[in-house]
Amino acid sequence: MNTVIVWVAQYLLWVMVAGFAAVWLFAENRRGKIDLAAQAVVGIVLMVIFLYIAKSVHHDPRPFVENPHIKPLFGHSRDNGFPSDHSLAAGLIAVLVLLRHRLLGLPFVAAAIAIAWARVAAHVHHLQDVVAGLLLGGLAAVLAFVIVNAVLARWRSRRAGVSSRAARTSTR
Length: 172
Description:
Largest sheet: none
Oligomer: single chain
Order of helices and strands: HHHHHH
Shape: elongated
Number of helices: 6
Radius of gyration: 20 Å
Structural class: mainly alpha
Strand content: under 5%
Number of strands: 0
């Protein structure tokens, strides 16, 4: 069982990244790819900002640092465990996919929860670390989705306005 916990805690995030790349690659059209790529970039920027703020506001020693009798299932640094950056990234990916494809997003949500659980089971995070990571990652995804959609809608409407004006003036 420990082997499964370690694999999920350390490697399932990479499977999620590959799955996200597949969702992007098989997006319906060019516009969908642009939207999703922009949402991912903005989401990553927001995620890093949230991570930096959260780490500076709250310090939570990792379980094996707090209690020397607890042994982590894999080697890990003794730094601040709040929030879990793995859970943060998993939450971002899961919610970005969920906002795009509800049904396809459910396995991503399950994977994000599994990663969070495994990080706690491996004794490298407390429950509050992974819950905060999932919530902050989800928040970064929702904000990125809203920001990118608003900016791209405005840009596309301006571009369409310029195109229609150009077409009207060329027909005169």
